[in-house]
Structures are given as C-alpha cells and as structure tokens.
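Possible regression after last week's pipeline update?

I re-ran a chain I had predicted before the update to compare outputs. Posting the input and the new output here so someone can diff against the archived version. Not blocking, just want to make sure nothing changed silently.
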Amino acid sequence: MADRDRPKIDASDRPASPVTLKDIAWVNLLIGLSSFGGGLVSWFARELSERRRWVDYRGLLSGFALSQIMPGPSTVNLTLYFGFQLRGLAGALVAWLSLIVPPSLVALAIYVAYTHVPASGVAQSTLEGVAATAAGLNIATGINAGRRNRDWPTIIIAAVVFLAVAVFHLSILLVVLAAAPLSLALTWWWDEHE
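New output (post-update):
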C-alpha cells in the first residue's frame, strides 16, 4: 500500500517514538485478553486512537470499514490492517498472533472448565452479563464515532445503512455492496465541493 493511501496521522497526534513490535504485541494481547464477549472495536478505538494516538479517529474508522468488507472475522482483519500500517508485514504478523493465540488458549481453558461445571443460573447470568457489556461497548463506540465525524457524507451513509439493516432487515452483504460505491461517490463529491 502506498504511503498516500495510509490513514493520515496529524503530526501533533503522532507518538513521541516509533511504534515497536513489542508495543503492537502488548496492545493486541491486552485487547484480546480483556475484551470478553466482543466489543473489540471499542478496545481498538480506545487503545489505538485515544490512548496511544497511533492513528487518528478517521483512520481508525477507515480501517474498520475496510475490515468489515474483507472476508473473515472483522476484528482479525482490523488487527492485521493496523499492524501492517504501523510496522509492515512483521507488524501484521505480531498483531495477529498476539490478538489470537493467548485469548484462544484462555477460551479453550474456559470451555473445558465450563463443560465440567453443572449448568447453573450463575453461569448463565455471567454469560448474559458479558453479552450485554459487549453490546454496550459497541453502542458507545458508535456514539463516539458519530460525535467525531459530523460531515454529511458520514452521517448520510450511517443513517442509510442503519435503516436498511436494523429497520428494514435487508441483507448486510447487499447493504455493504450498495453502500460502498455510494459512500465513495458521496465522499468524493463532498470533498470536491467543500
């Protein structure tokens, strides 16, 4: 990917020192181990954009959008994308391994333990609480994104996609296929006429 295609990071937002592979591994390990029940995008937003300022919020949303339309799990795509943006192929590999392997081992241990624990109200309540937390994190990320991106193309596309999927229950694949070219055209037109 050419430098001109990478998400723009304002000079005032850049970290004081270059991002190391160790930094990438540590952040992805923390995200992978602490994001029980989903909500990974919220963790990425907090760690990459807000706390560490490795990428601006617009770049984060661009990476998230790209990760959504690529085949495979979007959070894995997202970590590969930012690992590559920050440190190339080595960064992508380190990000992927540190996000996937340790949490997979923890999940495997939990599954083994769960099969040995009789079904109980406490276990079910815990799982429901984790799911509610993940939903809340995703809603918070959406609200945060809406506050930071007040340009009309973003608002229009977000509203159209929300209505198509949440209200009219259209296929997500069809909505993405229709919204992607519309989004590109609208954003191009907006940038040209602003």
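Follow-up from reviewer: compared with the archived run. The CA atoms of residues 150 and 156 lie 10 Å apart. Marking as no regression found.
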